[in-house]
Amino acid sequence: MSIIWESGNLFVNIGLGLLAMALLVLSSNEVVKRLVGLAEYLNLSATFMGMTVLSLATSIPEISSHLTASVGIVTGSLDYHQSSAIVLGANIGSDVIQQTLILGLVVFLSGGLRFRRYFWWKSVIPMIGTTVMCLILGWDQSFSRLDGLILFGTFIGYTYYLYVDERKYYNADAQPEKRQEGVPQSGREALLYAAIAVGGMVVTVFCASLVLHVTEYVVEHTGVGGSLIGVMTLGIASALPELSTALAGVRSKEHGISLGTLVGSNITNPLVAIGGGALVSSYWVPRPLIHWDLPWETLTGLVLLATLVLTKGKLSKMGALYLVALYFVYMIGRAALFSTDAYL
User: Fold this and answer.
1) I need a labelling partner for 220 at 20 to 30 A (CA). Which of 175, 230, 244, 333 fits?
2) In a 10 Å sphere around its CB, with 0-12 CB exposed, 13-18 middle and 19+ buried, how is residue 302 labelled?
3) Distance between CA atoms of 297 and 118, rounded to whole angstroms?
4) Inter-residue contact 60 to 272 (CB < 8 Å)
5) Which of 24, 32, 77 is nearest to 53 (CA)?
6) pLDDT for 119
7) Burial group, residue 90, by CB count within 10 angstroms (0-12, 13-18, 19+)
8) Using an 8 Å Cβ cutoff, are 55 and 261 in contact?
9) pLDDT greater at residue 305 or residue 31
C-alpha cells in the first residue's frame, strides 16, 4: 500500500483516502446494526443500550483510528506529531459535531424532545466532565500513558455504575413484547451476528490505517494542520454512525436510543479512544485542540445543560437551531483561526 502514497500524486491519494473513509463508515454501520440486534436479544433497556453498547459501537471509527495510530507510532510507521494531531482532531471534532449539529437535527426532526432529570445527571453532566478532564490532562500538550489510564479507568467505573443502576431499576418483563427485524432469534443466530460484527471491525481497522497514512501524506504535501483535517474530514465521517443510529431511534420513537447514543458516544470517545490510544503510545496534543476545540466542546455542553435546566428538560425546535448554529460558528472559527498545528 505504501507505493500508492509514495507515488507523488496528491489527487490519487485523496481519492483513495475518501474511498477508505466511505468503506470505514459502511463497515461501522454494519457493526452497529449487528450489535444493536445483540443488545435487543439480551433485553437491554433503550437508554442503557444507547449509553453503553451503541455508544461503543458507533465510536468504532474513533477507537480503531486511535489504536491504529498508536500502534503505528510505537512501531515507527507513523509520525508521532502528525498522527496524534489527526486522530485527536477527528475525535474531538466528532464530539462537537454530535452535541451540536447531529443533536440539533435529531431534536428538530422529532419536533422537540424532553430530557428527564435523571438523564442530565447520569449522561449530560458526565459528558461535560469528560471534556473538562481531557482539557486538564492535555493542558501540557500531551496525553501520557498515566493520563490514558485515568481516562480508560474512568470509563470502566462509569460503565459499572450504569450497569448496576440498570439491573436495579430496569425490568425487562415489564416491557412490551416485541421482536424487531434484525434481532437474533436464537443463540446460533446471535453468534453469527457477533462473528459479522468482529469481521466488520477488522475491515474498519484496515480502513482506518489506510486513511491515517493518506491523511499524513496530505498534511506533508499541503501544510494544512493534521488536527484541522481530522476535525473537518475524519471528524464528520466518524460522526455518521451516530447520526444514522440516532435517526433510526427517532423513526422508531425510541428517543432513549437517540439521546443515549449521542451523549454516550461523547463520553466513550474521549475515555476509550483517547484513553486507550494514550495507554499504547501516548499523544502529542496540538495547541488548537487546547485553545479552541476542547473549550468549544465544553461550552456547547454547558449551553445544552443550561437550556435543559431553564426549560425543565424541554429542547424545542428553536433550541435545536441554536445548536446547529453553534456548530457552524465552531467550524468557521476553527478554519479561520487555527489552520495549522504548532509543534512547540
Assistant:
1) 333
2) middle
3) 22
4) no
5) 32
6) 75
7) buried
8) yes
9) 305
CB neighbour list of residue 283: distance below 8 Å, 6 or more residues apart: 84, 87, 88, 142, 143, 274, 277
Least confident of 10-19, 47-56, 68-77: 47-56
Band (5; pLDDT cuts 50, 70, 90): very low
Which residue has 489527526 as its cell numbers?
86
Phi, psi of 36 (to 5 degrees): -60, -45
Spatial contact of 200 and 27, defined as CB atoms under 8 Å apart: yes
Helices 187-222 and 80-97: angle between axes, nearest 10 degrees: 120
Beta strands in 118-272 (DSSP E): 142-143
CB neighbour class for 171 (10 Å; exposed up to 12, middle 13-18, buried from 19) = exposed
What distances in angstroms separate CA 270 from CA 112, 251, 294, 298, 304, one per listed residue? 28, 28, 11, 13, 19
What's the predicted TM-score (pTM) here?
0.78
* Residue linked to cell 499504547: 280
Band the pLDDT of 109: cuts 50, 70, 90: confident
- State the virtual CA torsion across 107, 112, 113, 114 in degrees, nearest 10: 150
CA angle, 273 then 282 then 163, to 5°: 35
Which of 193, 199, 315 shows the shortest CA–CA distance to 262? 315
Amino acid found at 4: I
**Rg of the chain over all Cα atoms, to the nearest angstrom:** 19
Q: Confirm if 50 and 259 have CB atoms less than 8 A apart.
A: yes
Q: CATH topology for 2-169+185-335?
A: A middle domain of Talin 1 (1.20.1420)
Mean pLDDT of 317-343: 86
